[in-house]
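Sample intake sheet
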Amino acid sequence: MELPNNDITVPHNKRSIEWPIAFVVFSFQIIPVFVFYIEIPAWCWSLGFLFFVIRFSFVVIGYHRYFSHRSFKTSRVFQFLMAIGAVLSFQGGVLRWASIHRSHHKFSDTKKDLHSPIIYGFLEAHVLWVIRKYDIDDSNIKDLTRFPELVWLERLWMLPSLILATLFFIIGGWPLLLVGFFVSTTVLYHMTWSVSSIFHLFGTTRFPTKDHSKNNFISALLTMGEGWHNNHHHFPSSARAGLYWYEIDISFYIIYVLEVLGIVWDVKGVPTYVLEKNNI
């Protein structure tokens, strides 16, 4: 798969708007308001919440810790299943997602970072960067583009979500479609975007890093461990973001269970020297 290189000479907050993407993002902020105008059965809320948790798990474990950081290994079949699970969040293909995130770590909180709140401000870092025009540098995802099934899914990344939305409508009509797909996807968006914005502004710093990444206990609870962001930026290839026993990292617990079951292996942890150096 050949993707055009990103022109880093243009400041990210000066790029023009990708209007189709902007329309989708804006629509997802408005449509959930209809929950106040139609009756939503309790079972729709329950099923919607269940699928929200499942989809967000794939965002963190799939998009982030596996495809972006390769923090563990798995079979090609499970890799593809994780890719399908990840795109169900309606956040684009795994190749694009991983490329952007790898660039974020390389240029974190500099002008080349697409979503730095330090450089471009909170609103740009939280959402506006999503709707701007930019190309992806494929040089940092060659380990992923060698899989034709991932390249295929990159072109058809919307299909799994559209199938899921259709199933929701068939099963529960407008109420389930509204809360199971639109509301949960909107929350998924903001949970994911907060890692770029909030987690670089508010919290504590344990490790000296080249950026402004922070640890935040409350955020970590809400984002299945992603709130231990300073830990993560200090050692990004680790599957484990929470280092102390009280640093709850639900995503890592899931990865650990998958390792016990033999579904994943070679799970990368934090090196002993890092723990000893910081008395962890």
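Comment: The first helix runs from residue 19 to 30. The CA atoms of residues 48 and 180 lie 4 Å apart.
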